[in-house]
Amino acid sequence: MDARADTHNATDTFIAKLYGGALVAPPARFRTWALEQVSKLIPCDAALWGSGTATDLRFHTTTTIGLPEEFPKRLEDTAGINPLLPKIVANLGSPVDMESVLDDQAFHASEIYKKAFAPFRIERILATGHRDDRSGLYSLVSLYRRDPSRHFTAVEKGLQQRITLHLFEAASHSFFVHLMRNTDMVEGHGSALVDRHGMYHEAQPRFHDLLDEEFPERGISLPFPVPQPGERTTHGKLCVSCEKMGELFMLQIWQAGPLDGLTSREREVVISVAQGLSFKQAARKIGIAPSTVANHLYRIYRKLGVSSRSELATLVHPRG
User: Fold this and answer.
1) Chain segment 220-274, per-residue pLDDT in tens
2) Handedness of CA 276, 277, 278, 283 (dihedral sign)
3) pTM value surpassing 0.90
4) Are 112 and 90 in contact, with CB atoms under 8 Å apart?
5) Cβ neighbours of residue 171 under 8 Å, at least 6 residues apart?
6) Which of 77, 141, 168, 248 has the fewest beta carbons closer than 10 A?
């Protein structure tokens, strides 16, 4: 009874630590940090956290500890002969042990062992699948042991079942904490975290609302290519900015306004002038000559159809 209580308390502590991890590990490293914590709760030599779609059995993003970079690709390439995968997909949310699919003799004689696991000295496998109904993404969390005598116990399987959902929820929490703490959130903007294929990993409701207005027939992924990091693009009436975040990309979208038709340098000039800086002060702040500020401002006035600093300031800071 005491042992079960200790396990329960340790699991509760672990789950609380996961959500607190948003303040410890940045979003780009959160999954690595989380797997490291899992390996302490359920001792293992290596682990993988991958996400993708069930249709092509390909990872869009992968995080590993204790494994070389080529392992996820090897796992993908052997998906068709991996007897564990169908059972994982059929039992989402429940841990599946390779021993429940193949006994040791059959496992060691199998092609999947020879091609995917033996090269990395993997002998014991405990995996849990998860599907996010909001995004359609499938995720896999697998724990690996290299000592064949170290079987995954019923208690450890119970631990993995209890914590797996919290892994995904804590990763989501990490993203939104990052938004609140480190991003200049502007009213009317929406943010989302996507992979290189444009699949949503996290998204604010405002992000989807803006896309629905411009792309009413859109599917479950981004209706335009992921911009290059640091790039600003326009799609219809929407502007999109992109920031790299590990394997993922954080996008912000908003409805285009008058200033969005300006170049980045012109926007710098507008912001400086709207703050009341003189040409010399603006030039010093931006790092250009005062005459260049004047030339930019002349073109800006023509583009925006304004004729004074006060009109320009009203565009930057519209009165309610």
Assistant:
1) 889 999 999 988 888 988 999 999 988 899 999 998 877 667 777 887 887 888 7
2) negative
3) no
4) no
5) 27, 30, 31, 34
6) 77
